[in-house]
Specification:
With 518 residues, the chain is of the alpha/beta class. It contains 17 helices and 14 strands. The chain has 4 domains: 271 residues, Aldolase class I (TIM Barrel); 31 residues, no CATH class; 55 residues; 115 residues, 2-Layer Sandwich (Double Stranded RNA Binding Domain), CATH 3.30.160. Helix 6 packs parallel to helix 7, helix 8 packs parallel to helix 9 and helix 16 runs parallel beside helix 17. Bound molecules: 3-methyl-2-oxobutanoic acid and zinc ion. Zinc ion binds next to loops.
Length: 518
C-alpha cells in the first residue's frame, strides 16, 4: 500500500445505528454491509457485539459474508466485551477487534480510575485483544479533550501492547482543523513505534467541522478516516463518507490521497441507508442531497447548458446519479423499471425486482405518471419479512358528521387480528386501531408528511418517530393515500421499537472494576 492510501473505516452500522431512532433490523444490516463491501470500504465496523444478541448475530453474520472488507466489532476495555467481540468477528476473512476507553478528565471520572489505573487497564486489554486477533484497534475516547501528556501515554501503551491502529476520536465534535492536524502530527512525531501503526481519525459534527477535521487529520498523517453514510450518527452525526471521499477525489491536486471506494455506488447506498434508518437526507446536503446537482435559477441553467463546469465541480455520474428521464406509466414493463432503477443508482437482485415491480404496478394503477422521485419513495418503503407487525387491510371513513371510523386487520406474529375504532380525524382513528391491536406505551414524538411530487395524486411520504422508555424508533412509508402511508409508517416505527427493546442499554462508560473477568 502506498503512503498516500487512506483507509475508509465505515461505522454506519455501529456509531450510525446507535443514534436515537436509527435502529436497523438484522436483514437491513446485512444488506447495508453487503453494499459497503461492494463499494470498496476497507473496514466495516459492523456493531457492538456485547450490546445484545441481535448485535452479536449481525456482526457474526456480516463477518461470515464479507468478501473484501475487514470486519470490526466494538468492545469496551474489559475482557468480557473483548471476548464477545472476538467470538463475533472471528468468522471474517479479515477480523479486527476495536477496544476503547474514555481518557479525558470527564470520562476518567465515570469509572473513577486515576491515570495509572487507566494506563494499566489499557495495557491489559490491548494485550488481551492482541492475543486473540492480529488486527487490534485502540481508541482513546474523547482524545481531543484529553491532556496531551496523558493522551501520548495512552497511545504509547497501546502501541507497545500490540495495537495495529490508533484511533484519535473527537467524540464531542470539539476540535478544529488546525488542531486536528497538529494532534496527529505530534503523536506520530513523539510516540515511539508510531510509524509501525496506522493513525485514524474519528470526528463528530457538532460544530459542522467533521469533514474538515478528518481531512486535516489526514494532512497531519492519519491514514484511516472513520465515517458513516450520509453522516448518520449521534447528535449532529459523524463524518460523512461521501464528503471525505469525494473531496479527496475532486481536489486531488491539493489532497493527493487515494481511497479504494467506487464512488459511483454512493447514491445507491445513501438512499438505502436513508430508507432503513428512517433518517432522510436534507435536500441541500453535500454530494447526496436531492438538490446537490439541481440547477433551478435561470442564470445557472444557462451556464450549465453552455458548459457544465460553470456550476459543477463533479459530475453526477461520478456519484452514481444519471440525468432525469421520461416518467414510467402503467404499461411500462419489468425491463423498463429495472433500467430506470439502475439509472437512479439501484442495483436489484431478481427477487427484489419482483417485489418492487408489484408495488410499482399498484402505484401506476393509481397514478398516471410515475416519476423518478416516486420510484425513490417506493424504494424507501422497507417492509421486512421478519417484521412482527404487518398491516393486512384497512379502511377509514371520515367527514363532518362525527368522529372518523377505522377498521383494520393486522397480523401480529402471524396471528390475524381485527378491530374497529374511532378517532379525532382519519389518522388518529387509524393510529388508535393499531394501538387497539397491539397495545404499547410508545409516545408519538414526530409525525411528518411530505408530498413526493406535485398534483393531488402525488404520493405522500410519512415519517413517524416513537419513544418508549428512552428508546426511539423511526418509521417511514409512502403511498398515494396519506392515511395508509401514515399507518404503515407507524407500524414500521413499532417494529423497530420491538428490535430496540431487545437491546440492553450498554453505556460507553463501563463502571465494572473487575474488567479482567471474562
Ligand atoms: O465517538 C467516539 O469516541 C466513539 C468511540 C467508541 C470510537 O464512537
Ligand atoms: Zn463516535
Amino acid at each position: 500500500m502506498t503512503d498516500n492510501r487512506v483507509l475508509i473505516f465505515d461505522t454506519t452500522l455501529r456509531d450510525g445505528e446507535q443514534s436515537p431512532g436509527a435502529t436497523m433490523t438484522h436483514a437491513e444490516k446485512l444488506e447495508i454491509a453487503e453494499l459497503l463491501d461492494e463499494m470498496g470500504v476497507d473496514i466495516i465496523e459492523a456493531g457492538f457485539p456485547i450490546a445484545s444478541e441481535g448485535d452479536f448475530a449481525a456482526v457474526s453474520e456480516i463477518s461470515k459474508r464479507a468478501k473484501q472488507s475487514t470486519i470490526c466489532g466494538l468492545s469496551r476495555a474489559n475482557f468480557k466485551d473483548i471476548d464477545r467481540c472476538w467470538e463475533a468477528v472471528k468468522h471474517a476473512k479479515s477480523p479486527r477487534i476495536h477496544t476503547f476507553i474514555g481518557t479525558s478528565p470527564l470520562h476518567r471520572a465515570i469509572p473513577n480510575l486515576d491515570m495509572d489505573q487507566m494506563a494499566e487497564r489499557i495495557h491489559e486489554c490491548v494485550t488481551h485483544a492482541r492475543n486473540l486477533c492480529d488486527n487490534v484497534q485502540w481508541s482513546s475516547m474523547d482524545a481531543t479533550r484529553t491532556e496531551w501528556d496523558f493522551l501520548k501515554r495512552t497511545v504509547d501503551i497501546a502501541i507497545k501492547a500490540g495495537a495495529t491502529t490508533i484511533n484519535i476520536p473527537d467524540t464531542v465534535g470539539y476540535t478544529e482543523p488546525n488542531e486536528s492536524a497538529d494532534l496527529i502530527r505530534r503523536l506520530i512525531a513523539e510516540v515511539d513505534g508510531a510509524d509501525e501503526v496506522v493513525f485514524s481519525t474519528h470526528c463528530h459534527n457538532d460544530l459542522g467541522l467533521a469533514t474538515a477535521n478528518s481531512l486535516a487529520a489526514v494532512n497531519g498523517g492519519a491514514r484511516q478516516i472513520e465515517c458513516t453514510i450520509n453522516g448518520l450518527g449521534e447528535r449532529a452525526g459523524n463524518t460523512a463518507l461521501e464528503e471525505v471521499v469525494m473531496a479527496m477525489k475532486v481536489r486531488a491536486d491539493v489532497m493527493p490521497y487515494a481511497t479504494g471506494i467506487d464512488t459511483t455506488k454512493i447514491m445507491n447506498i445513501s438512499r438505502r441507508v436513508a430508507a432503513v434508518s428512517g433518517f432522510s437526507v436534507q435536500f441541500n446536503k453535500a454530494i447526496v442531497g436531492k438538490n446537490a446537482f439541481a440547477h433551478e435559477s435561470g442564470i445557472h441553467q444557462d451556464g450549465m447548458l453552455k458548459n457544465r463546469e460553470t456550476f459543477e465541480v463533479m459530475k453526477p455520474e461520478d456519484v452514481g446519479l444519471a440525468g432525469t428521464s421520461l416518467p414510467l406509466g402503467k404499461h411500462s414493463g419489468r425491463a423498463a423499471l429495472r433500467d430506470k432503477l439502475e439509472k437512479l443508482g439501484y442495483e436489484l437482485g431478481d427477487n427484489q425486482l419482483k417485489d418492487i415491480f408489484v408495488r410499482f404496478k399498484e402505484l401506476a394503477d393509481r397514478k398516471k405518471e410515475v416519476f423518478d422521485d416516486d420510484l425513490i419513495a417506493l424504494m424507501r418503503v422497507s417492509e421486512g419479512a421478519e417484521d412482527q407487525l404487518k398491516l393486512v387491510e384497512m379502511s377509514v371513513t371520515c367527514g363532518t358528521g362525527g368522529p372518523a371510523k377505522a377498521s383494520m386487520t393486522m397480523t401480529i406474529d402471524d396471528a390475524e387480528k381485527r378491530i374497529e375504532t374511532t378517532g379525532d380525524g382519519p389518522v388518529d382513528a387509524a393510529f388508535n386501531a393499531v394501538k387497539g391491536l397491539f397495545d404499547h406505551s410508545a409516545r408519538l414524538q414526530l409525525y411528518q408528511v411530505h408530498a413526493v411530487t406535485e398534483g393531488t395524486d402525488a404520493q405522500a411520504t410519512v415519517s413517524v418517530r416513537l419513544e418508549e422508555d428512552g428508546r426511539i424508533a423511526t418509521g417511514q412509508s409512502a403511498d398515494t393515500d396519506t392515511v395508509v402511508a401514515s399507518t404503515r409508517a407507524y407500524i414500521a416505527a413499532l417494529n423497530r421499537l420491538i428490535v430496540r427493546r431487545e437491546r440492553t442499554q450498554v453505556g460507553f462508560d463501563d463502571k465494572s472494576v473487575s474488567y479482567k473477568d471474562a
